[in-house]
Amino acid sequence: IEGASHIIKGGSIMHVEGVAHNLGGDEYQNFIGNNVHIEGSTHRLIGCSNSHIEGTSNKVSHRDVTYLHLEGEAHEISNPITHSHIEGVRNHTAGTSNDCCHMEGTENTVDHAQQSHIEGSKNRVTTEDTTLSYISNAHVEGGGNTAKANCSHVEGGGNLTTGVNSHAEGGGNTASGNNSHAEGAGNSSIGHNSHTEGGGNAANAENSHAEGDHTIANNFAEHACGRYNESHTNDPVFGTTIFSVGVGYTDEGRRKNAVEVGLDGSMFILEEHFDEEGTRSTTPVKLQDKLRGVEDALGGLKFVVAETEPEEKLPNTVYLILD
Predict the structure, then answer these.
(1) Using only C-alpha atoms, what is the Rg of the chain?
(2) What is the widest separation between alpha-carbon atoms in the chain?
(3) Judging by beta carbons within 10 Å of its beta carbon (0-12, 13-18, 19+), is residue 146 exposed, middle or buried?
(4) Residue 167: enclosing H or E segment and its boundaries?
(5) In angstroms, what CA-CA distances link 159 with 78, 93, 156, 176, 245?
(6) pLDDT by residue (tens digit) across 134-193?
(7) How far apart are CA 46 and CA 62, in angstroms?
(8) Dist. CA 184–CA 199, nearest whole Å
(9) CA atoms of 267 and 284, how far apart (whole Å)
């Protein structure tokens, strides 16, 4: 023991140096711990074993703290934790099970976390509002992010993961589907294996992809791009959308598709109209119907889309070869 003004009530095999450490004094009971190295100033400990505490004004108020390396200032260790490293300022623990965690930065929290990593400011790994006993193998970095799922990765600011193996990056994104990925700003990847990118997009169905600006994909394996598209499900006219290019305006009530493909292979495109004053408007029309109209206008001439030119060609048929 070296330094000045320490209060020590209990403990064994300790090295204490610095100023005004409080081990088991004041409102605390006797200090329970051994194999502890404490340095710095004004730490307050009720118990810890096989640990190293350095810095200033750190507080350990739970006895089930073992194999902890704690450095920095004003950390609050009020719950069990073991085999962990904490550094920075005002980081703290919550919950009853924290093991093998690395936390650095300021005001971060591990709550029932295992084998997890947090760095930055005001990030959390937590089981809050879940049915999980603990979160394992999560990685969080940046500011104000939260990981609530096993093996999830969060980076940026204000992002959230609740799906297993999910990844949210950027600002204000949510990845709630298992194996989902949300990147950009304000996106939501809700379906399992879904992906969103851009701003304000939502992939609501399994294996769906929404990209661009405020696009939505509500159906299995649907792809949405552009801006403010429409996504139809069992619609009497459009059927179920599998692909769309949105050209809508900046509000929910004016969503529109330039191109839309249905699950049954039907395709819709925008047809433009002009009134007597020259004002332009558009309406969606079915491409197959337009082609049939062309066939009728040309006296029965047919158009066929093919990947390769056929060896035997049908009469009165124009082949559109995809190259």
Answers:
(1) 31
(2) 105
(3) buried
(4) strand 167-171
(5) 26, 20, 7, 11, 27
(6) 999 999 999 999 999 999 999 999 999 999 999 999 999 999 999 999 999 999 999 999
(7) 6
(8) 6
(9) 10
Predicted TM-score of the model (pTM): 0.85
Vertex 75: Cα angle to 2 and 110 (nearest 5): 135
Cα distance between residue 44 and residue 92, in whole Å: 14
Tell me how far apart the alpha carbons of residues 12 and 33 are, in angstroms, rounded to a whole number: 7
Distance CA 265, CA 52 (A): 66
Q: Are 88 and 101 in contact (CB under 8 A)?
A: no
Instruction: Please report where in the chains the tokens 């320490």 appear, as a residue.
Output: 6
Contacts of 316 (CB under 8 A, 6+ apart): 300, 301, 302
Polymer length of the chain = 323
What is the DSSP secondary structure assignment for residue 47, as one 8-state letter?
Answer: B
Categorise residue 11: left if φ over 0, alpha if ψ from -120 to 50, beta otherwise.
left
Distance, first Cα to last Cα, the chain: 83
In terms of DSSP bridges, do strands 257-262 and 267-274 run parallel, antiparallel, or are they unpaired? antiparallel
Taking the C-alpha atoms of residue 292 and residue 26, their distance in angstroms, rounded to an integer, is: 90
Q: Which of 159, 145, 78, 82 is CA-nearest to residue 115?
A: 82
Q: What angle do CA 105, 136, 33 make, to 5 degrees?
A: 65
CA distance 239 to 288: 14
